[in-house]
Known about the structure:
Largest sheet: 5 strands, antiparallel
Strand order of the largest sheet: 1-2-3-4-5
Number of domains: 2
Shape: globular
CATH class of the largest domain: Alpha Beta
CATH architecture of the largest domain: 3-Layer(aba) Sandwich
CATH topology of the largest domain: Dna Topoisomerase Vi A Subunit, Chain: A, domain 2
Radius of gyration: 22 Å
Mean pLDDT: 86
Helix content: 25-40%
Distance between the termini: 77 Å
Number of strands: 14
Amino acid sequence: MPGVSTEQIAAARDVDLLTYLQEREPHELVRSAPGEYRTATHGSLVISKGAWYWHRGGFGGYSALDFLVKVRGMDFVEAVEAVCGIRASPAPSSLAVKKESSAKEQRVLMLPPPVKYPSRALAYLQDRGIRADVIKRCMDAGVLYEGRYDGEPVCVFVGKDEFGKARFGCMRGINRDMKRDCSGSDKKFGFWLSPHDPASGVLAAFESPIDAISHSCLFPDWDGHRLSFGGTSHAALISFLERNPQIKHVSLCLDDDGAGQIAARRIRTLLKTEGRFSHITATIDPPAQGKDYNELLLHTVRQEREQRQAGHRKDAGLSL
């Protein structure tokens, strides 16, 4: 089709509406119920379980592309370019633009206060297979600490900008299953583990900070940048690549599930088709075992423990 390639169209069809709005128009999202959103412009449009339905229009869909064409009335080529990031999507109204600008100006990151002794976080992360020296490295870098949220202990993972200022934070419950971004977080700045060589041209990208840390435990000799998106949005990746033009290879280590692999293919196509990133080679590298890299780490730790125990039993048998 004139103006866009087959690959760009395929990548655009893979992007769901919620992901698109989270990345490009977060001011449009209005949470209406757990796991359900509406849009500020169209109050009768409901987004839930990966799909959307516009009650006023009497139709729905799954992709952001369908939304831009059928609801916004955009030309198909323009819509593909908007979803792929080639063309900025026009705001639905000048009011929405003002709201977005105001929200950015007022954004203040609210990180929970740290505790003096992070023993709970240390124990929790070690139970997840993370080595103590890797935990210490993250804490010394100021990108990991134990905090309190609603009276509960949480692991706090911090994303900083190029000046070392905290711009993003996400929390993971220690005593209960809780995952939440800190108020005022900017998704363009994800959790990042720096390599020993800051000029490294290799980057591994993950959905969660724990997966990035797990990768560090699994491959301690791999000296590249490790970045967490905080989900499947590629906002943190694009921002990182803009700030680090030396990156030549991106390893997409997203979860080995439907959402993760769809996002990985979409990002690979985006990097391949957008001119400013044409020098970058992107590979899709899900974990060899389990859904994510922490599951792979736990599997590896169990195998190593079983091998040690088998060796001990063998040695004990020889001594008899």
